[in-house]
Design a protein that fits this description.
The structure holds 2 protein chains of 2 kinds. By secondary structure, chain A is of the alpha/beta class. Chain A folds into 3 domains: 9-97 and 250-259, Nucleotidyltransferase, domain 5 (2-Layer Sandwich); 101-246, NAD(P)-binding Rossmann-like Domain (Rossmann fold, 3-Layer(aba) Sandwich), CATH 3.40.50; 265-581, no CATH class. Chain A has helices spanning 52-66, 113-122, 140-150, 167-182, 200-207, 229-246, 250-256, 264-278, 322-325, 329-332, 341-353, 362-384, 410-413, 418-429, 444-451, 456-463, 568-581, and strands at 9-15, 19-28, 31-41, 90-95, 101-107, 126-133, 154-158, 190-193, 213-215, 261-263, 284-290, 295-301, 304-310, 402-408, 433-439, 469-476, 486-494, 500-506, 510-513, 520-527, 542-547, 553-556. In chain A, the strands form 4 sheets. Chain A has an 8-stranded mixed beta sheet, sandwiched between helices. In chain A, strands 3-2-1-4-10 form a 5-stranded mixed beta sheet. Chain A is globular. Chain B is mainly beta. Chain B has helices at 58-62, 69-72, 198-206, 222-227, 245-253; strands spanning 9-10, 12-23, 29-30, 37-38, 43-49, 52-57, 80-81, 86-91, 96-99, 104-110, 113-118, 121-126, 131-136, 141-152, 155-156, 160-167, 189-195, 211-217, 232-238, 258-262, 275-279, 300-303, 312-318, 323-324, 330-331, 333-338, 342-347, 351-354. Classes of the chains: A alpha/beta, B mainly beta. Chains A and B meet through strand 3, helix 1, helix 3, helix 4 and helix 11 of A and strand 6, strand 10 and strand 25 of B.
Amino acid sequence: MSTILDAETFLAIDVGSVNTRAGLFDVVDGRYRLVATSRASSTGGAPLFDISEGVRMALDQLRAITGRRLVDESEVLVMPSTRDGAGIDLLVATTSAGPKMRTVLVGLMPGISGESARRLAVSAYLKVVAEIGLMDRRREEEQIDLILASRPDLILVAGGTDGGASASVLSMVELASLAAGLMPEGQRPRIVYAGNRQLAASVVERFGDRIPVTLAPNLRPGLEEEDLGPARRHLAEVIAQTRAARVAGFDELARWSGGYLLPTADAFGRVVRYLSRVYDRTKGAFGVDLGASQTTIAAAFDGDLCLSVRTDLGLGSALPGLLKHCTLSKVTRWLPVDLEEDQVRDYLYNKWLNPGTLPTEPDDLHIEYALARQVIRSALFLARAGWPAVRGQHASAQMPPLEPIIASGGALSRAPRPGYAALVLLDALQPVGISTLVLDPYGLTPALGAAAGPLPMATVQVLESGSFVSLGTAVSVVGKGRLGRPVLRLRLDREDGGGSVEGVVRFGQLVVLPLSQGQHGRLTLRPERGFDVGFGGPGKAGALRVAGGAVGLIIDARGRPLQLSTDPVRRRESNQKWMWDIGGQT
Amino acid sequence: MSINYLPPVTHVIPLTTIRRERRLPVPGTVTVRVGQKVQAADAVAEAEIGRRHFFLDIARGLGIPERQVAQYLAHARGDRVDAGEVIAGPVGFSRRTVRAPADGRIAAISGGRVLLEVHGEAFGLRAGFPGTVTATDGTTVVTIETTGALIQAVWGNGRQDYGMMRLVGENSGDRLQTDQLDSDLRGAVLVAGTCDHPAPLHQAIELSVRGVILGSLTSDLIPVAQRLPYPVIVTEGFGHLPINPMAYGLMRSNAGREVALDARPAVAYDSQRPEVIIPLPATREMNLPGDVVPIARGLRVRLLRAPHQGAVGVVREVVEEAVVFPSGILARCAAVDLEGIGTETVPLANLEVLQ
């Protein structure tokens, strides 16, 4: 849906598992601006199983803030806007809410179609419960029993390049068809076929009238080609239909949005892809959306988007999944205070039970954000497996150069101080070189991604308008050394007569130079031998114009990868000191 | 300022109408009728689960081309067969046949092969609590209704059972300990404040207890509890949290009565959650408890986070302006009069309605 519309005012709604957000945008002085945002409890879960009430509460709050009437007496959205200033011209919506579809992947070849199917699954809100492939050692009957025992909502079949393998693909389709046909009529899964397109008619015939099949473009049209985008869109429609059958209100939201109801992750990824084209094209653009029930990692390299949605990693209902990916010590290593592992584990499980709750005590805050760091790190590690090899990447363990880095999600946006949020991002992502850290405090990124279709100018203008919070420019030094050894000399000349700062940064330090949001300066960096700041190799000096932010100009000389002390006392002291140095102390 | 927050609701009700759906995991047969009174242990529906499948290669078995298989089949799709029964053949001078390896059903016929579905295990769905059948769809769902006390909980290990409730210890926060578990408690449903060691949970197996209700469990014991053969229900959360006063008072006043435990874990986008039902007679029509309760002055609430996690109180007022808490977090909040503690300012997000 890419028809560009003419709209003076538009509304964006995001329905999450915990919060429903609404954002109102207007044309001000010829440019789109964010006018107001609101947030309300999501109501898609028990007891209502209807998102409408959460949407209504969010709209009601917007009305209270702006004084603008958005719905009529029947609580129907007023569209288009009226002369008296009521209503809106366009609604776009995104959602990450709804039960995750239990999915069985049926792919032909491990490492090829099987791998592509898996990558597609992790970029959608799917819960993969079983995988079956051509090289599967289980007998066919066991594979059928596995599918039945998995009780899937969806079977995703992939395999065969266009014009390629047919007999083996149809054999797998036959298996899936047999299994699906054995399920009771009301419990049969949806089928999405994204394989050899020349077999599409045969696939539909195999499943027959009993089980409708959604045909999607081949994930692997050629052996060396992978194209997940078209299949992802078809999958999104299937997911939307299933979700609407289980949770009321989505149909109405889809109607209100005239088809602009997107998965939150897809919309989020659109913005990151756009940014990769307008920022430094030698670097990738990056975004992380840390939610309660999933974590989205979006990385785009010159317009090529890699999207990962982990429904087993999040800071609320998905928290227990973290312990399948790492030990608790990976969480406690981030704490600046001495807390028992048992206490951290109890906190994790209580947060799982009550994902919408907030940490009001300092110790709880530190646990919450230690969990946040490790959830992001675990999701990032899994996402990076699907990233292309990127020019400028120093080693496989290190991140590629990124610019900018966008952070979204309730936990990150409500961090008590900008420095705290910046430290969480630096610890979790460990970027290299020079990056701008940007916080999305109002959850606008998905909204702008959804608006990009009908109103591309709105997306561009709001991104430029200051609705996001720049935490600052971060210079992350790559290299190892003894603690205290000089790693670089710097000079910052602030523009507009703001004065200059010079100094030496030593290994292990986290330094913040004052440079406020809206301020700019010229930064000259002279790294010592063996240390790289992104000017083309270790020891290479350079200068660039940098922007300030809510934290300032951050120099992270703690090394990459970040090595925390194995001595717990020294480690806590380091964590405390870094928090203090970056202005994150509460 | 409109309140845009709907708090979660936990029911702790001394007497109410309780209506619950019991559902088979796969379609089967409902064995009760609407209006029938049932006991907790009564089977209300049955089905076959865990069916397995076997391919029988008819073409190979009979030594014939695939295109000829159809003419030698002795059964059609859907037919039931007994072990040893001929499925296809005889063919040729040697009278070759293919026989069913076990009792089952012809699930599918495709490409010269027969898919045989072998009987699974019989599964009986129990009522879970004494009541009256009020509705059924005949194959999968049975709705049962009763009156009694209802105590909803936050976590369970997935089991169900029914038995006499006995309190262990003196107070709502007392730890469950092995030296408290004597033979007097055999076959009972035990109630204790907290458990932080696996030993009493294992010892309870020796006593054939019908369940354990706790205020809290330390989270390291979750895997232990999940393997226990009896239901474990946690009313407050993980750590060392006493049972909330409302629930404890209700259990204390009903000690010695039969209770039904349904320890099914809460599932997202599903109304199920673990609960304790104490069937009690009612002399008048009791309304079903409401689940949507906007936050308001006078509401009884429970705190979901520290400080004072688990404490119960009454909302004095919902504060207009957001407040900064000691952690630095800014949040909309309410002033709550906590029993035995005093008035505390608590984020709305950390409150749950307890009624």
